[in-house]
Amino acid sequence: MNAPVHAKLASQLPFYQPVADECTVFETAWRQQLPVLIKGPTGCGKTRFVAHMAAKLGLPLFTVSCHDDLSAADLVGRHLIAGGDTRWCDGPLTRAVREGGICYLDEVVEARKDTTVVLHPLTDDRRILPIERTGEELQAPPGFMLVVSYNPGYQHVLKTLKPSTRQRFVALSFDFPLPEVERAVVQHEGGVDERLAAQLVTLAGQIRRLTGYDLDEAVSTRLLVYCAKLIASGMAVRLACRTALVEPLSDEADTLAALMAVVDTQFGH
Amino acid sequence: MNAPVHAKLASQLPFYQPVADECTVFETAWRQQLPVLIKGPTGCGKTRFVAHMAAKLGLPLFTVSCHDDLSAADLVGRHLIAGGDTRWCDGPLTRAVREGGICYLDEVVEARKDTTVVLHPLTDDRRILPIERTGEELQAPPGFMLVVSYNPGYQHVLKTLKPSTRQRFVALSFDFPLPEVERAVVQHEGGVDERLAAQLVTLAGQIRRLTGYDLDEAVSTRLLVYCAKLIASGMAVRLACRTALVEPLSDEADTLAALMAVVDTQFGH
Amino acid sequence: MNAPVHAKLASQLPFYQPVADECTVFETAWRQQLPVLIKGPTGCGKTRFVAHMAAKLGLPLFTVSCHDDLSAADLVGRHLIAGGDTRWCDGPLTRAVREGGICYLDEVVEARKDTTVVLHPLTDDRRILPIERTGEELQAPPGFMLVVSYNPGYQHVLKTLKPSTRQRFVALSFDFPLPEVERAVVQHEGGVDERLAAQLVTLAGQIRRLTGYDLDEAVSTRLLVYCAKLIASGMAVRLACRTALVEPLSDEADTLAALMAVVDTQFGH
Amino acid sequence: MNAPVHAKLASQLPFYQPVADECTVFETAWRQQLPVLIKGPTGCGKTRFVAHMAAKLGLPLFTVSCHDDLSAADLVGRHLIAGGDTRWCDGPLTRAVREGGICYLDEVVEARKDTTVVLHPLTDDRRILPIERTGEELQAPPGFMLVVSYNPGYQHVLKTLKPSTRQRFVALSFDFPLPEVERAVVQHEGGVDERLAAQLVTLAGQIRRLTGYDLDEAVSTRLLVYCAKLIASGMAVRLACRTALVEPLSDEADTLAALMAVVDTQFGH
Amino acid sequence: MNAPVHAKLASQLPFYQPVADECTVFETAWRQQLPVLIKGPTGCGKTRFVAHMAAKLGLPLFTVSCHDDLSAADLVGRHLIAGGDTRWCDGPLTRAVREGGICYLDEVVEARKDTTVVLHPLTDDRRILPIERTGEELQAPPGFMLVVSYNPGYQHVLKTLKPSTRQRFVALSFDFPLPEVERAVVQHEGGVDERLAAQLVTLAGQIRRLTGYDLDEAVSTRLLVYCAKLIASGMAVRLACRTALVEPLSDEADTLAALMAVVDTQFGH
Amino acid sequence: MNAPVHAKLASQLPFYQPVADECTVFETAWRQQLPVLIKGPTGCGKTRFVAHMAAKLGLPLFTVSCHDDLSAADLVGRHLIAGGDTRWCDGPLTRAVREGGICYLDEVVEARKDTTVVLHPLTDDRRILPIERTGEELQAPPGFMLVVSYNPGYQHVLKTLKPSTRQRFVALSFDFPLPEVERAVVQHEGGVDERLAAQLVTLAGQIRRLTGYDLDEAVSTRLLVYCAKLIASGMAVRLACRTALVEPLSDEADTLAALMAVVDTQFGH
User: What positions does the domain ATPase dynein-related AAA occupy (chains A, B, C, D, E, F) (predicted)?
Assistant: First the structure.
């Protein structure tokens, strides 16, 4: 128990293709002990970027996928009963503070409000984590960094970050990578040649420019990699595109037909 | 305890009549370690298809019917108290990961949000399942596959799959089978002769084309099989159709009358 | 404990006056191992019919009145602590499966969604009941039958049976019995002579045809029997009608006056 | 423990002034083993009437004031832990069934739905109370009677009795008593002379006929008795009327002034 | 434990300046064993009045501030586990009944519905408190009195006292005291001279007559006392008025400016 | 356990630059034993001010960040089970009362209603804290002070302070500091020279005057300090402004472009 949950030491550096100056900004914020907010669409590489930076800076990384039922105790820790005895068990936030690592809250707007309030004393100049249940008050070491992310393009009627939380972070805005960058990612991760990777990235650009259809979100780099993998394993290109790029985006017959038309334009028919 | 809950080893291959290339797509996705999303109407054979593929690939299958109150602990596991002692009890998702089988979440949009978030680290390139309560982090073996399904035709105002979840899957779209396929299913499962099975499938097609009536969903292949069984056991055709094909579809007098008119056109009166 | 809760063996056959071919349909569905959905208004005899059929087929009957707070555990069972020890206690659904009897869920639309999902593996060709808490998976014996009922005339804004649940059943539609049948019931159960029973049934027909008044539901056969009992014990006819047929139907002065006018037309004044 | 909670044996007969044939109807329903629903405004004597009838019939009376958080266990009973031991403790409904008395649910529409469903098997011809937690099934003795009441004049947007519950009862409608009856009650309970009691009843009639003002409910007989008591103990009539008849009815200045004008007209100024 | 919680014996009489005949009405209601409802704006002295009357009548006083999460058990009592043993612990209502004192529920409309239903058997002629968990039924002694209060001027969309609860009380309406009374209170409690107290009361009157501004509630006597205390300790009059009379009333710039203009008119500038 | 949670003794005085007479008002309120309400926008220095005053007055400070799930027990304390034994554990409010310090509730409008009701007996002339679970009633010593804060500019549809709570406090209104004050803060905390600090403050003023854009809240002094820190550690001014002043304020492309235009006007391009 208390074994490494989400923590990964930087034994090897995860592949990450920088887009702009995001690595510099992240590292400067870390050196200045400022918390970072990352904004960007689904599947554009936010999680991969944080893993890359943690490895580069040699810091343990504790990742938490936020959701409606995530409570403050899930972050900070709780008493567990084991063998008739009660033992305190640190949560991922507490472990990141103790070990001086990065705590990364993915999709932070999904979390309950009481969860985000726990972050306040860690995000001003005090940099403390009070643990009310044990009476401890941890002073975060210089290495500790708090990173949160969310997707501004996906509208949440009731879920936003309160200004009083939001103004505690410096912010980085991510978008889909530039074509040459995305091509390199698809080629490297999907196991296809440069030409097919370029064709898939061109196709993605055409789909992302489609307007007037009921698309909650445009096709992600992750789906491009999925598509490349299917093709690399022998599936016909058109079927792979339908399976990995078209069907995951919509349930509307009109939208699906429009997306397949774009596919057929790109790859002939 | 910890006995096989939903798991069935592939001792015999469940009957499944392929419609298109769904078996190839499923198997390719499994080999490429990609999760699969199956979309399709009620009773069109999604569950049967997954059972068939699990048997064909020789994988244990863990099926979970999702609902409002399904929590992450129901999937991952929980500590149970037995005889004054606390023991950890794996949930179906954890068991599928440990045993390298298929975990199938039926009607995944019905589940609570915190349930779907648990799936995220299993559906990107990490393929891990962190079990926070025990401090374990399971690395999914190559055989493990996650499959989810839902019915896009039945509208849920508040229940949709978040794009950040949805874009983690390759997707297959199911529909009612082609007439010759459906006829074979009705004949095989319902125990009637080819001619009656063909008549029932024709009738189903006519009902499915009915518009302007308050029908939440069209008649399913399952109901056709029910109807065939009632006729095979000696019930009059018209009564069997009313009982198995008409009354289950609606409570509105007008709709019921219109449906019976279709029945009477098909089978004389 | 674990004593028969709702289960009644068919020592004597409860009185039931068939209306159409509902007994045949029910018995055929039972022989074909198909689940049955019964639709019909309040007090028309659905519960009595199921009790009659259970007795006729020699099956134990487990009745559950569904409501908002009925959980899956209420159906399947739970661990109870008794004398410092934990014992598993089967719920009525599990008992019906183990003993090969009928489990009857009355007003099933009132139940929570997670309750109805528990029924799914019992209503397709698998006919299994997984009990996650104990790790058991019960295979339903041939005698087991699932019966559910609800009242389509009473509108529930938020409560309907999901198509994916509904299409798992063959369905029977009940209505108030034909006059001669209802007269026999009122005479037999209410203890009045044939003429008075006939007059009460005529009155009920007139009330059921009243339109333009705020009546949630028409007068039931059960209320006719109540009225007959009050008269049989010496109460004046008009007072008995007001007490058993009029006041239970509405709180609106206009509606009550209209109903009493119908009474006075039938029985003079 | 398990001592008489709400139960009162009929050692003395509580004062009750009959209005019409309500005593006869109640007694007939009891002899015929039919449940009774009492409708009527606040403070018109419903609770007193039931107490009177219980005493007259020599039955123990178990009264439950219903509310939002009343659960089925509050009626049926629960296991309590005492001295390290678990003991079953009957609720008031179970005690009424065991002892063959009256269980009276006051303001039944306020109760949660799962509470009213518990009443169903007791209100049809089975007259049983299944206690799922202990595995018992009680057969109600002939003396047992279920009585429920509510106030149809006070509008509940979300709270009504379901038709399937409502049609299980014969019903009695109460209103404020006739002037001569109400005068006798005020004189007897309030300790004033006949003339003053008559004046108060006349005043109540005038207030009850006030229309066009924001009055949720008219003045009750109970408030008339309060007013009489204040006068009997020496308070000035006008101040007593303001305190007991006017201020309890409204918070609106216009309404209060209109009510005081009625008081001043009756008692001079 | 079970030490006096809110109970204060009347060792000294708290200062209270009567406004009208409220002391007489309260005492008469207490002698007649009638419960009292006090209506009035925030900070007008309701709590002080009840404390004064309890001391004058020599009764212990149990005060409960009501809120959304106040449950019936908070009033009646609960079993607590201490040292491995379970002990019953009376709540403030039960203690008031046992000791024959006053139980005062402040802002009773804020309480949950099940809380107010607990009061019903104590507020009719039975005057009993059934304690279901222990099986006790307490008969309230003559000294016991129930007092509830609320603020009719502050609108609650969903929170009102049900007529069936409200009509169980005689009612007293409070308002801000007359100028000469309020002046005496401000002088006595705030520690300022008569002239300044009179000026503050005049200012309060002007603020209370302000219309057309977004003021939830007018300035209370309590805030006047606060202002007097700040001035008495040396703060400039204008700053004291801004701090104690203006800023607590609103957050709107226009309203604050209008209030300060009234201050400057009264005290020059 | 029971170790200092949020309490900090005034070993060193935190830097605070007074804006007006807020220090005098605070100290006078503390000497007069009056509770204080602080209103003001996010990041304007409310928390820092309270820390400064606590240190100046030599009082321990207990800070609580309020949120939706903060219960009264979180403030007052609870019984914890440790080593099989139950021990009472004071909450921060109780500790502040016992030790005669300041209890500061940050963003008090976010707390549940039952939390604020707990404060009532501490905020009138009684100055008591009843602890119902232990039967204690604490009399607050002269040093104890209650301070609450909230942000009136950020609109809460459902969350406001009830007038009955609000009128228990004297109130201080904070705004962003005057330019010369803010410049000193940015220079001191951000580690930049006077000229750059002045430029950043001028820029903040321009951003705060922007109207017609979707800005929930204007840029705070805290973000200015963040920006200064990034520049001081070598980041280009424009990138630092984008990271610390622009991206944290909005997700709208139009708004972000308008903000960057203001940045470019200030710092050339």
Answer: 35-169
